[in-house]
Amino acid sequence: MKEQFYLSIQDLWKRKKNAFSLLFQMTLMLILLQFIFNAIFDLQKLIQEVGRLSQDQDVYILVDYTSLENWNDQLHMDNLEEIEQREANLTWFFKHLFENENLGAITLMRTPFFPSDERFTPFENERGSTISFMYATTILEDYFNLQTTAGRFFYEADYVEVGVHIPVVLGHDFNGIFEIGDTFEDRFHGHLEVFEVIGFLEADSIYANVTYSWDIQYFDRVVLRPLNRHHFQSNFQMQSILESSMYLIPESTKQMREIVAYAEELNLFTFLFRNINDQLELLVDERLLFLQSQMFLTALVTTLTLVSFTISLLQFIDKRQYEFGIHYLIGATNKDISIRIAFQIIPFLIIGNAIRMTLLNRMGYGLLTLGVSILLSALICLIPLVRMSRLNLSSMIRWRIT
Asked: Which pTM value belongs to this model?
């Protein structure tokens, strides 16, 4: 078998231009396949997650329809009293959402984090940092079923009191790099803040943000800090949170109307509210259209790859018939020749999957893609092996293509 594998490598090297073209097609097919699997199963997971969130209670999002004119007026305020009044309005509205015992609120704002601490270096790439800051509210832990593998989640006091350090809960990927009690510094919005690690989330902790995304989001590289307005250095932070995505869990639909009216009354935002199930329907329709186009492209590339490999192997068999005939005369069997042909697919399978895993190492369902790639490789070999089995020794000896 080793000899047949060595011969197959030599065969590929003799037609290396064709081999590189086939490798590109194989790799592209595998990457597209993994994208498809990831999209399909993540969409299914998103639907299940939203169903769980809204199973016992209605959950709403706010859709911002604030006019550009309103934004311009607020940005160009030069009257001190107007500025102070707006800052007060922001505080009142913030407290109405996030410090209201009759309303559950979760901010889904995710801010890129660019720490200077060298311990975060493994989480940087050529595109920059892969780490994000998120704010935790009092209901976040229970609502998203978050569990800590070490340490603890936030106490009630963490959301209202100011200590020497700001407590943070880190995603699972930071476990082993940091320990409970470790501290690190960062300049957040220009102000130096010191954070203390109090816990680590378990691996693959997820949440669904249907306000804008159809993808499941992961907490693995998130730094969670408590949403405590006493930590804010400016009203800009408060406004950013109010403008961002959030889930609201009211006692009734009437309360949502009151929130929208209150924002309008304070001359801050023009909101509409929408149930997350209605939002999910819009996302699913959009996602299915995207999936259809992606599946068509994947099917096209897969078909071209299968045809290209099959034709290449058939041409190889035709050109090597005389050589195969000689091998048969000196004792080779059908199994030996079949292995030599089949082994020509293995390098493409190994290298293609290695490239795929390198490029998409953060994407799931890699084993499923690997399994499908092995199945497709077996399918590629089917026609050439059938062709080989139908040749007889006399025709092989007579058939010599130079």
From this structure: 0.70
